[in-house]
Design a protein that fits this description.
This protein has 477 residues and is mainly α. It is built from 19 helices and eight strands. It has a two-stranded antiparallel ribbon with strand order 1-2. A two-stranded antiparallel ribbon has the order 3-4. Strands 5-6 form a two-stranded parallel ribbon. α8 links the parallel β5 and β6. The chain starts with 8 loop residues before the first strand and ends with a helix.
C-alpha cells in the first residue's frame, strides 16, 4: 500500500532553524511553532472575529502612520493597508490559527497577524508567499511596534466592540421587561421577603425592577468602556518607544481612531505605566460579574415564579420551548433561564481568572493577557447571546396566571399589613393569626367581623391602594 503524499510545503526559518509550512498557508514559521506549542484550549484566534479585525486595524494604523512619516516604502505600506482592509472585511480569518491560550504575552498572536498580512501583501505586490526579502513580517508589517503595545491595543479595541454588542443585547432585554411591566401594571401579586408573604404589589412593579436593575448595570458598563480607550500604542516593548519614530505614536493613534470609528481613543499619558497595567480589564470584569450576578438572580426569580404547575408558585407562565424529560410525560422546564444562569456562573468564574492573571504581572509587563483576553471575550459574547435569547425566547412570551394571583392576594396574611391602618394593629394581628389557624381568607374574616364594609374593602384592594402605583409610575415613564 502506497503512503499518501505529504502536504506540499515551503521552508521558512527563524532563530531556532528551519521549519516546513503548508505551501498554501498565509501564516509562517512563527505561527507554525506556536500551533505546535499551544494545543491547549483548541480555540483559535479566528473564533473571535472581532479580535482578528481589531488586530488588522492596529496593523493598518501602523502602516499608515509609518507611510506618512516616511519610514515605510509607499508600495509596501499600500499593500499592507490593502491586506489589512481585506482581513477587516472578513477575509483570511481562517489563517489566524494560534490558540487563544499561549505563552509569550501574546507574541504568537502578533506574529500570526504579521505573517498573514505580510504574505497577503506579497501576493498583492506580485510575489510568492514566503518571499520575505520583498516585504518582511517583522521589518515592515511590525515596523515601530512590539507585541507589548499591539496586543493590548487590539484587545481593548476588540473588547470595546464586544461591549457595544452587549449593550445592544441588554437594551433588548430591558425593553422586554419594560413591556411586561406595562402589560402587568394592574395585576396584583404578593411581594415576598425571605420567601415569606410580605405585602401586595403589582406584577408590573416586579418586572419593572428587573428592567431598572439592568439599566443601572448598563450605566456602569458604559463607564468602564470609556477606560478602554486609553492606549499604549507607540510604547513598543516597555513604554519607552524604542525603535519607533518620534511622530509614530501620535500618527498611529490618530489613524486608529479613523479606522475603528472610535473617536475617543487616546494615548496614555505614561506609556510605561500603561504597558504594565491591566487594571481596566479587572474593572470591566468586575462590571461583567455584577451584570451576571444580577441577571442570574432575575432568572432565579423567573424560575421560582413559574414553578409548578401544581406543586409550585405557578404565578407566571414561561413559554414552553422543549420537552422537559425523557421519562416524565408533559414536563416542561425553564430551559432559557437555566441557560442564562450557567452563563452567569461562567462569567463569575472568569472574573477570578482575570483577577489572578492581573495580579500575576511582573515589573514592566503582564505576560498573562492571553487568558484575560480569552475570558473577557467569552464572557462578553455569552452574556450578549444569553440576554438576547432571554428576551426573545422567554420574557416576551411570559403570561400571568391572574386567577392564581388574585387568590393568593386575597388569602395571604400579608394583606393585613395593607388593612392595618384602617382596622388597627391589634385587630390586624388577630385576623392574621385566625387566618393561619383556620385557613380562611383575610378579607372573609374582616367582612365577617364587620371591621370594614364591602365598599371599603373594594377600595383598598385596587392596585393604586395596595401597591401605590399607576401604570405611569410602574414603568418609570
Amino acid at each position: 500500500m502506497m503512503a499518501s503524499d505529504p502536504t506540499p510545503s515551503r521552508t521558512e526559518h527563524d532563530l531556532l532553524g528551519e521549519l516546513p509550512v503548508p505551501v498554501d498557508a498565509y501564516y509562517g514559521v512563527h505561527t507554525a511553532r506556536a500551533v505546535d506549542n499551544f494545543t491547549i484550549s483548541r480555540i483559535p484566534l479566528s473564533a473571535y472575529p472581532v479580535f482578528v479585525i481589531a488586530l488588522a486595524a492596529v496593523k493598518q494604523a501602523a502602516a499608515q502612520a509609518n507611510r506618512k512619516i516616511g519610514v515605510l516604502d509607499v508600495d509596501k505600506a499600500d499593500a499592507i493597508v490593502t491586506a489589512c482592509e481585506e482581513i477587516r472585511s472578513g477575509k483570511l480569518h481562517d489563517q489566524f490559527v494560534v490558540d487563544m491560550i499561549q505563552g509569550g504575552a501574546g507574541t504568537s498572536t502578533n506574529m500570526n497577524a504579521n505573517e498573514v498580512i505580510a504574505n497577503r501583501a506579497l501576493e498583492l505586490l506580485g510575489h510568492e508567499r514566503g518571499e520575505y526579502r520583498y516585504l518582511h513580517p517583522l521589518q515592515d508589517v511590525n515596523l515601530g511596534q512590539s507585541t507589548n503595545d499591539v496586543y493590548p491595543t487590539a484587545i481593548k479595541l476588540a473588547v470595546d466592540g464586544y461591549v457595544v454588542n452587549l449593550q445592544g443585547a441588554l437594551d433588548t432585554l430591558r425593553e422586554s421587561f419594560e413591556a411586561k411591566a406595562r402589560e402587568f401594571s394592574d395585576v396584583l401579586t404578593m411581594g415576598r421577603t425571605q420567601l415569606q408573604d410580605a405585602v401586595p404589589m403589582t406584577l408590573g412593579q416586579e418586572f419593572s425592577a428587573f428592567a431598572v436593575t439592568l439599566g443601572e448595570d448598563q450605566a456602569r458598563l458604559e463607564e468602564a468602556r470609556q477606560l478602554l480607550h486609553e492606549l499604549n500604542l507607540g510604547g513598543t516593548a516597555i513604554g519607552t518607544g524604542l525603535n519607533a519614530h518620534p511622530d509614530y505614536r501620535e500618527e498611529a493613534v490618530g489613524a486608529l481612531r479613523t479606522i475603528s470609528g472610535v473617536s475617543t481613543l487616546s494615548s496614555a499619558p505614561n506609556l510605561v505605566e500603561a504597558t504594565q497595567d491591566v487594571g481596566v480589564f479587572v474593572q470591566l470584569s468586575g462590571i461583567l460579574k455584577r451584570i451576571a450576578t444580577k441577571l442570574s438572580k432575575t432568572c432565579n426569580d423567573l424560575r421560582l415564579l413559574s414553578s409548578g404547575p401544581q406543586a409550585g408558585l405557578n404565578e407566571i407562565n414561561l413559554p414552553a420551548r422543549q420537552a422537559g424529560s425523557s421519562i416524565m410525560p408533559g414536563k416542561v422546564n425553564p430551559v432559557i433561564p437555566e441557560a442564562v444562569n450557567q452563563i452567569a456562573f461562567e462569567v463569575i468564574g472568569n472574573d477570578v481568572t482575570i483577577t489572578l492573571a492581573a495580579e500575576g504581572g511582573q515589573l514592566q509587563l503582564n505576560a498573562f493577557e492571553p487568558i484575560i483576553a480569552k475570558e473577557l471575550f467569552a464572557g462578553l459574547d455569552h452574556l450578549a447571546s444569553g440576554s438576547t435569547i432571554l428576551a426573545q425566547k422567554c420574557v416576551d412570551g411570559i403570561t400571568a396566571n391572574q386567577e392564581m394571583l388574585r387568590k393568593r392576594v386575597s388569602e395571604s396574611i400579608g394583606l393585613v399589613t395593607a388593612l392595618s391602618p384602617k382596622i388597627g394593629y391589634e385587630a390586624a394581628t388577630s385576623i392574621a393569626k385566625e387566618a393561619l389557624a383556620t385557613g380562611r381568607g383575610v378579607i372573609e374574616l374582616v367582612l365577617d367581623k364587620e371591621l370594614l364594609t364591602s365598599r371599603e374593602v373594594d377600595a383598598l384592594l385596587t392596585p393604586e391602594s395596595l401597591a401605590g402605583v399607576t401604570l405611569h409610575a410602574a414603568t418609570g415613564e
